C-alpha cells in the first residue's frame, strides 16, 4: 500500500538513501553480473564498502515438510499411514514438474531468469524510485530473489516453535519482515535480498534455484510447494498440469491468500466489504491474474495462438482434494497411529522440549517407520469389529486388542471397536482414547484385568521356591493374608467365590491355574506377601492407574489382598508384555512402536531408546509357562481362544465382577491381549447377547483370531523350554498320626497340616465308638495335600490278642477274656492232652481288629 502523509524530512531521507543505495545496487550488481564493465569513482567505492557490510551468505535449509508414519504392508514394504504438517508440502525433482509450469512462472515473474545473475537491474532501479516516492510497493524481484525471500521466511518461522503463545503473530511478522518493500527499510531489505540472490546464483544452478522456489513457495493457507498445490487445487500432480492450471497456480503464488481458489464464498473483500473472488463470480480476481499469465506466455512464444485461446476461455473450476493429516486419516490404524504420535511428542529422541518435538512432527519431514504389520493388524481389526459394535448399548461397552513380539517388544497390532475422533462428542461410537495403552500413550486409564493378574502370584510362588505340584488347600476358607512388612488382613474366600460357585478343592498350582480357581490362588498368596506379588508385576513392566490422584503409579504403591485377582486398572499392552516376558524366557522387552526414523536428507536418526532385560530367571519362566500351557489345553479355561494350528501357547483368562473380561495368550513369537467390557461404568455384561455370542465370551473369539493371524505371519512358535525339576517336584511332608483322636479333632489336625480328609465307614475296633481306629495312608512322609482317609470305631470290635507260644487252654482263655465268643481249636490241636499243645497262631491274626462275634481259630504246633 502506498505510504501517505510523508514529511519533507522523510522524503529527503529517502532520496539520500536512494542515491547511496542505488549506487551500491548498480555498482555491485554490475560488477558481479557483468564483471567486464569497469567500475570507478569515490562515490562508487564508498557505496561498495557499505554494501559489503551486509551479510553475504545464505544457506537454504530444508523447507518445512510433513512428517509421515509408515506401516508394514502385505509385501513387507512400507505403506504410508498418516502425515502431520504445519505446511502441506511434497518436494519434487526438476523433471517431475510440467514444462508449462516453468513457462508460466517465468513468463509472469521473471522473463529474463536465464540471462541475469540473480538481479534485474532495470526493474530494481524503477522499484527503488517508486518505493522512495511512496507510489508503489512492488518488489520487482527475480525468481532468485523470491527464492531468497521464501527461504528467509522459512528460517524465521522455524525459529517460532509450535506452542508459542504468540505463534500466529510471530509467524505473520516473519512474512512482513521478509516482504517489506516500502521506504528506506524496504530498500535495505531489497539490497540484502539482492546480495543473497547473487550468492545463491554462484552456489546453485538456475534449474536448482527455480525448482527450489517452486518447492518452497506458498500457494495459500497451508499449501506449500507446486506438488501440494497441484494435488490440492486440481487433484493432479505437478507433472500433469494443463496450461490453464499452471497459469492459475503461477498467478496464485503472486498473492497466495488473495488468489486462492478454495474459498467458495470468496477469498477477499472489496472496498464496500463485499466478498469477491468466489465461486459465484468465477474466482474473478484469480482469473484476471491467470489470464495475465496466459497472455505473457503467449507473448513470450511459450504457447500457440490456439492454446492461448483455449486457456483463456477455460473457466476456473477447482477440483479440491483436501490433504488429510493426523491420525484420523489412518482409519483402522488410527489408534496405533495415536500411540506413535504420543511417543514422538514425549520422547527426547525427537527434541529436548515439547515445542521442539511438535516441530519435529509437523515440520521436519521425518519418515517414521513403525512396527505395525498390516498382515497382523487387518485380521485383528476384523476380529474385533465383527463382534463388538462401536456403540452397543450407550453404556460404554467396548473392546481393544494388542499383539506384540516377545523378543523385541515391537507392537504388531492395536485395534479398538470405536472410530477415532479427536473432536469431543457425546456419541460413544467415537473416541480418541487408546484403550490398549496406558495414560501416557493415549489417555486411557486401563481396565481391571481380573485373573490374568494371577501370573504375578504364580511367578512369586516359584521365586520363593514353591513347586507347581505342591498340594495346598484351595477350598473356601478364611485366610490370614500377609500384606507387607508383617501386616496381615483376614480374607474370607467365599465372599469372592469361584466360577460356577465351585467350593474349591485341595489341589496344586498347576490345577488352580488351569481352572483359574480364585480360592486356590488366595491360598497360594497367603503363603507369600501381597507387596512381593505386586513387585513382580512392577518388575515385568506393569503400571496402574490411581483414580484418586488421576495419574499412573507403580503397582507397589497400593497393596491389598484383592490385588491377587486383578482389581488394579492396567493397560492391556502392559499385560501382553508381561506374558511376552514369560514366553521370552524371562526377558522383558518394553513395548516399542518405531523401527526407524529418516530425515529429509535420507539420514538415519536415533529412535527412542528401549532395552530388554532379564527380570525373571529362565527356570521360573519355563515353569510358569509349563503351568500356563494348561490354560490353553483341552479342558483349560482358555481353550476356546486356542486356534489349534499347532502353535504351542501359554495363556490366561480374566474377568472382574460382571463388567470386565480379558484373554491373553502367547507363543514364543507373538503375545496377544484382548479386553472386552465396560470402558466406563460397571453395567453388567454377563449373559447379554450380541451377534450370536454372550458378551463375556467374545474375548475368546477375538483373541483366537488375532493370535492365529500372528502365528500365520510369524511362522507359529517354538516349543517352550522344559520346566525346572525342582519347581515341579512332588513335595513330601510329615503326615501326623491321628488314630485314637475323635473324628473332629483328627480332621482339624490333618487339614491344619494341609491335607484333605475323607471320613470312611465305621470299622470294628476295640476303641470307643467315634474314635479314629485307622488312617490311610499311615503316619509318615507323604506328598503335600494328600487325601487321608480316617475310619472311626463302631465300638463293636475287639483286637485279637497275641497268644502264640501259650498252651492251648491258656490261649483260649485269653481270647475269650478279650471278648471273643467263638474260639475254635484247629485240627492241629486235636491229638494228645490239651495241656501238651502249644499255640503258634490264630485266624484272624494277632492284632486284627474285628467284631467280637467273629470266629477265632487257634492253631497249634
Q: What do you see in this structure?
A:
- This protein is an alpha+beta fold and 861 residues long.
- The protein contains 25 helices and 36 strands.
- A five-stranded mixed sheet has the order 2-1-5-19-20. Strands 7-6-24-23-22 form a five-stranded antiparallel sheet, with helices on both faces.
- Helix 1 (8-33) packs parallel to helix 7.
- It is rod-shaped and about 160 Å long.
Largest sheet: 5 strands, mixed
Radius of gyration: 44 Å
Low-confidence stretches: 1-21, 27-44
Share in helix: 25-40%
Shape: rod-shaped
Summarize the structure.
The protein is of the alpha+beta class. Mean pLDDT is 90; it is low at 1-21 and 27-44.
How is the secondary structure organized here?
Layout: H1 8-33, H2 42-52, E1 67-72, E2 78-84, H3 99-109, H4 121-133, H5 143-159, H6 167-179, H7 183-203, H8 206-216, H9 226-234, H10 243-252, H11 256-259, E3 268-269, E4 275-276, H12 284-299, H13 305-313, H14 334-344, H15 354-362, E5 367-373, H16 374-385, E6 397-404, E7 411-416, E8 419-420, E9 430-431, E10 447-448, H17 454-463, E11 472-473, E12 478-482, E13 488-492, E14 506-507, H18 509-515, H19 518-525, H20 530-539, E15 543-546, E16 551-554, E17 569-570, H21 572-583, E18 587-588, E19 594-598, E20 604-605, E21 613-614, H22 618-632, E22 650-656, E23 660-666, E24 671-678, E25 689-690, E26 693-694, H23 698-714, E27 732-735, H24 743-752, E28 756-759, E29 772-776, E30 780-783, E31 787-792, E32 797-799, H25 808-817, E33 822-825, E34 839-843, E35 849-851, E36 855-860
Parallel strand pairs: 1-5, 8-9, 28-31, 33-36
Antiparallel strand pairs: 1-2, 3-4, 5-19, 6-7, 6-24, 10-17, 11-14, 12-13, 15-16, 18-21, 19-20, 22-23, 23-24, 25-26, 27-30, 29-31, 32-35, 34-36
Helix pairs in contact: 1-2, 1-4, 1-7, 3-10, 3-12, 4-7, 5-6, 5-7, 5-8, 10-12, 12-13, 16-23, 17-20, 17-22, 18-22
